[in-house]
């Protein structure tokens, strides 16, 4: 079932909402009141072609009973979608959340939450995704690693590296200050627009994923270096 107008019409603010249960009408109504067109699909009915047809502004995945199997849809999405993915879960499970981030989710939101808070989180994800699309072209190159902020594109050794929204934002945060140490607090502020609480390990997960994708050895990275007790450093040819 499609909630909203026909998919054949041109829309500018479209949310693909995938669930493993019947979606709350208040959530859908809240999104529509904000001007979003909501397209509701059951997780088991998802097909890649839907993304090509719909071209959603963001994807929301609502799971009553989060599991590795359910969250793995993020991995499927990331093969052809680089926009924000927000996961709503009824239960908190650190392992599932870590797996979800590893598979491409940008953020998790524990239910129940008010529709206003949900909208705030959604707008924050969209701001992070959109803010680089309107800025002047700026490219940072370190050896064979090229980070293009205007195109939100990363190349390494001539190959395009597919990054999620959060992964690119983190890498660009480091690229803007290439050859300088960037603290965990600075990165957290750039990604989440909030102060670091000293416990969140999501940055470590994103760094690990970026290293894997650009072929960096975690023990002796060429580009993305951890500076113990200080933060992270993006520099070409750095070694112990």
Automatic annotation (TrEMBL):
Residue ranges occupied by any Response regulatory domain in the UniProt entry: 1-126
Pfam families the UniProt entry points to: Response_reg, Trans_reg_C
DNA-binding region: 137-236
Subcellular location(s) of the protein: Cytoplasm
Matching SMART domains: REC, Trans_reg_C
Superkingdom of origin organism: Bacteria
Gene Ontology biological process terms in this record: regulation of DNA-templated transcription
Gene Ontology annotations for the cellular component aspect, listed alphabetically: cytosol; protein-DNA complex
Principal location class: cytoplasm
Modification 4-aspartylphosphate occurs at: 62
Sorted UniProt keywords: Cytoplasm, DNA-binding, Phosphoprotein, Transcription, Transcription regulation, Two-component regulatory system
Domain OmpR/PhoB-type: 137-236
GO molecular function, one term: transcription cis-regulatory region binding
Gene3D superfamilies membership: 3.40.50.2300, Winged helix-like DNA-binding domain superfamily/Winged helix DNA-binding domain (1.10.10.10)
InterPro entries xref list: CheY-like_superfamily (IPR011006), OmpR/PhoB-type_DNA-bd (IPR001867), Sig_transdc_resp-reg_C-effctor (IPR016032), Sig_transdc_resp-reg_receiver (IPR001789), WalR-like (IPR039420), WH-like_DNA-bd_sf (IPR036388)
PANTHER family: REGULATOR OF RPOS, TRANSCRIPTIONAL REGULATORY PROTEIN RSTA
Name of the protein described by the UniProt record: Two component transcriptional regulator, winged helix family
């Amino acid at each position: 079932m499609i909630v909203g107008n026909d998919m054949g019409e041109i829309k500018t603010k479209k949310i693909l909402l995938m669930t493993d249960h019947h979606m709350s009408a208040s959530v859908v109504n809240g999104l529509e009141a904000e001007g979003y067109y909501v397209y509701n699909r059951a997780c088991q009915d998802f097909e890649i072609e839907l993304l090509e047809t719909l071209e959603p502004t963001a994807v929301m995945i609502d799971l009553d009973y989060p599991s590795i199997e359910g969250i793995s849809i993020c991995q499927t999405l990331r093969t052809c979608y680089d926009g924000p993915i927000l996961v709503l879960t009824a239960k908190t499970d650190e392992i599932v959340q870590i797996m979800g981030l590893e598979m491409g989710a940008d953020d998790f939101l524990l239910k129940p939450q008010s529709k206003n808070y949900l909208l705030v989180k959604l707008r924050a994800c969209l701001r992070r995704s959109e803010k680089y699309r309107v800025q002047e072209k700026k490219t940072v190159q370190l050896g064979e690693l090229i980070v293009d902020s205007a195109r939100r594109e990363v190349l390494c050794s001539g190959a395009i590296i597919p990054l999620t929204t959060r992964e690119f934002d983190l890498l660009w945060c480091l690229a803007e200050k290439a050859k300088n140490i960037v603290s965990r607090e600075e990165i957290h502020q750039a990604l989440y627009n909030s102060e670091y609480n000293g416990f969140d390990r999501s940055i470590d997960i994103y760094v690990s994923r970026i290293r894997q994708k650009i072929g960096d050895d975690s023990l002796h990275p060429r580009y993305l270096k951890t500076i113990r007790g200080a933060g992270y450093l993006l520099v070409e040819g750095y070694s112990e």
